[in-house]
Write a structure and sequence with these properties.
single chain; alpha/beta; Rossmann fold; Dihydrodipicolinate Reductase, domain 2; 2 domains; 7-stranded mixed beta sheet; 6-stranded mixed beta sheet; 8 helices; 13 strands; globular; binds adenosine-2'-5'-diphosphate
């Protein structure tokens, strides 16, 4: 008989929470029971999952006994606040926030790229930043061809990267602007409707935003290349779902474009668009692969390549990657908290 698990989702009413529910069902994840948690704001409401109506519980008041595997997507503060309680009852946590990603003892995993990191887990596993996730399989493929020397990534990130409230703000702003009214701005630093914003997160002393620093630090950790030169500019664009990244990569050694094409074509989780095809956000919504297009040599340097990478930030950039991590844990018999 195959084993199934008692699952909990913290942040179940959010944009990623909703996607977690969809992907769990789609992938026929071995669920014995499913419990949904959020704040007192939505406690008592119900969400439908397969043929069940499941009540959302207030995480503050919930008895967590019995939960074996928990997905967190309620923001970094909630992750820090509630991780201890889940670990105490022996649950393994897959955390979608940045709360623990850079802690040395916490594996930061994209299953197609560094599944071996899961073997060291102590109950907490981090799901990387959405824009970071979608670059990892293409970058690993390029690294295997000729070694990564320097990566320059410019992102085009959708409003759902800021959760359901981000999408709601963009929708409300679009309606107001079309009515020649002043739109409200709360989630984003400036009006997003009909504009682009080259600031995601807050500014660090370096001048980078924390989103840009996340991409730099997380890429190095996942690829096990602590010295990798990475430069990022993260831009919010007025789309709802799907992030795109313009990626410029310098490689250590010479290569043929045929070798690069082959490597990307065979990279797990990557869909390479050929000829002059290229993916937009519309193409990737609802998809789990990372789509690559506009692949071409960068003739301004010795060993350079340019590519365009698009993915569904709520799926591969969040829910799907988290569930793939859980599937990997099951496969490796690692759904347990090792205390020493
Ligand atoms: P709630 O519906 O109770 O506000 P999104 O990223 O789409 O904005 O969703 C955030 C998710 O995280 C929601 O499910 C939200 O629940 C939940 N959440 C936010 N803050 C907390 C908190 N302090 N405790 C528990 N859940 C929280």
């Amino acid at each position: 008989m195959s084993i199934s698990y008692n699952i909990g989702i913290l942040g179940a009413t959010g944009a990623v929470g909703e996607e977690l529910l969809t992907v769990l069902a789609e992938r026929d994840f071995p669920v014995k029971s499913l419990r949904l948690f959020a704040s007192e704001r939505s406690a008592g409401t119900s969400l439908s999952w397969q043929d069940q109506q499941i009540k959302v519980e207030d995480i503050e008041k919930a008895d967590l006994n019995g939960i074996q595997l928990a997905f967190f997507s309620a923001g970094g503060e909630a992750s820090k606040r509630y991780a201890g309680r889940f670990l105490e009852v022996g649950a393994v946590i897959i955390d979608n926030t940045s709360a623990f990603r850079m802690e040395a003892a916490v594996p930061l995993v994209v299953p197609e790229v560094n599944p071996e990191a899961l073997e060291q887990h102590r109950g907490l596993i981090a799901n990387p930043n959405c824009s970071t996730i979608q670059l990892m399989a293409p970058l690993k493929a390029l690294h295997q061809v000729a070694g990564l020397k320097r990566v320059v990534a410019s992102t085009y990130q959708s409003s759902s990267g800021a959760g359901r409230k981000g999408m709601d703000e963009l929708r409300d702003q679009v309606i107001k602007v079309l009515r020649f009214e002043d739109p409200n701005t709360k989630v984003f630093p400036r009006r997003l409707a009909f504009d682009v914003i080259p600031q995601i997160g807050s500014f660090e002393d370096s001048g980078d935003t924390n989103e840009e620093e996340k991409m730099i630090n997380e890429s190095r950790k996942i690829l096990s290349l602590p010295e990798l030169k990475v430069s990022t500019t993260c831009v919010r664009v007025p789309t709802f779902i799907g992030h795109c990244v313009s990626l410029n990569v310098e490689l250590e050694q010479g290569f043929t474009m045929d070798e690069i094409n082959q490597a990307l074509e065979h990279a797990e989780g990557v869909l390479l668009c050929t000829d002059n095809e290229w993916p937009s956000t519309v193409d990737v919504v609802g998809q789990d692969d990372v789509w690559v297009g506009r692949l071409r040599r960068d003739r301004s340097v010795d060993n350079g390549v340019n590519l365009w990478v698009a993915a569904d930030n709520l799926r591969k950039g969040a829910a799907t990657n988290a569930i793939q991590i859980a599937e990997c844990l099951i496969q490796k018999d690692l759904v347990q908290v090792k205390l020493s």
